[in-house]
Amino acid sequence: MYRKLLIVASLCLISSLSFAQPQKNKKADMKSAAANYKAPGSPMPALRYFRRDGVLLTNKDLNKKAPVIIMLFNPTCEHCEDEARMLEANLKSFKETTLLLMAADRMLSYIPYFVTNVKADEYPSLQIGVDSSDFINQTFLYQSLPQINIYDEQRRLVKIFTGTTPVDSFQAYIR
User: Fold this and answer.
1) The dihedral of CA 172, 60, 51, 162: what is its sign?
2) How far, CA to CA in Å, does 51 sit from each of 12, 38, 98, 129?
3) Distance, CA of 130 to CA of 101 (rounded, Å)
4) Which parts of 53-171 fold into alpha helices (H)?
5) Is the C or the N end of the chain the one with fewer CB within 10 Å?
6) For residue range 33-73, what is the model confidence (pLDDT) as tens digits?
7) Alpha carbon of 106 to those of 35, 70, 77, 111: distances in Å?
8) pLDDT of 121-153, one tens digit each?
């Protein structure tokens, strides 16, 4: 009797061990396969950006020989307005650097308010618009606004600044 029980228990143990192979976590695998766009050196994610004039920009439209600065902002944020004014005052420093101010697509109706408050119409080279490619969700650190992401000519993330940042803090990264 004990012998039969021992045989059955052994068979159960062997079968459970053979089927207990570690299962791959598909979500974890997918996550590890996805790029971490928030780490220095990571590539810039796909960009679909509607400027305030309605023009669609993608990665292909950016100057391939110059750095890109993308300021993630909320058009109703006072800190973001202050940062935009500071950028406007220093636009001559951005001769070759592409400068994009990007808000979430749900903020589209607030863009005219922002443009008026920061007098952006006086600075046509200041590109203000909305994200339509999930760029913000992939790159935002959720620390504070504005967030300034600086990419080099190879579209690799060089530096991220959060909060109000003086232009001289990122002067070394622009041309």
Assistant:
1) negative
2) 65, 23, 13, 4
3) 8
4) 78-89, 111-117, 135-139
5) N
6) 457 999 999 999 999 999 988 999 999 999 889 999 999 99
7) 25, 18, 15, 10
8) 999 888 999 999 999 999 999 999 999 999 999
